[in-house]
């Protein structure tokens, strides 16, 4: 699966059972990336992201376990560490601000290879960074 997350500068995801922030430009970017594809999420995320045109939205509380190979998974409110072996890629939208947080992204991105990064202006944030990470391959010849 390919995970989509929104993080603040410190890796925060949630505060007091709520997403830290949201931005219409990020929602539109996610829609374009997922166009014609499956996008898994839970009911909490479906309240904000569940009506994306041309995206097959699949809502299930156990979505990380159910998502298949190369299927997109929007994750806002849960640990990803139990699914680390299943994750093929991570798409991060970084708010470039620090917010209060009580739930943090729990994968170590230093173990992943950043293959792309770009910045764009959002509606509620002057600068948003979009980064894509893939699994770093380690082998001994």
Radius of gyration in whole Å, from Cα? 14 Å
Give the termini separation. 28 Å
Biggest sheet overview:
7 strands, mixed
Label the structural class. alpha/beta
The percent of residues in helical segments reads: 10-25%
**Low-confidence runs:** none
Shape by Cα distribution: globular
Number of helices: 3
Strand order in the sheet with the most strands? 5-4-6-1-7-10-9
H-E string: EEEHEHEHEEEEE
What is the arithmetic mean of pLDDT? 94
Report the β-strand fraction as a percent range. Answer: 25-35%
- Could you tell me the number of beta strands? 10
Describe the model.
With 141 residues, the protein is an alpha/beta fold. 16% of the residues lie in helices and 34% in strands. The protein contains 3 helices and 10 strands. The relative contact order is 0.27. The chain has helices at residues 24-34, 43-49, 63-66; strands spanning 2-7, 12-15, 18-19, 38-41, 56-59, 72-74, 89-94, 103-104, 112-120, 128-135. It has a 7-stranded mixed beta sheet with strand order 5-4-6-1-7-10-9. A 3-stranded antiparallel beta sheet has the order 3-2-8, with no helix packed on it.
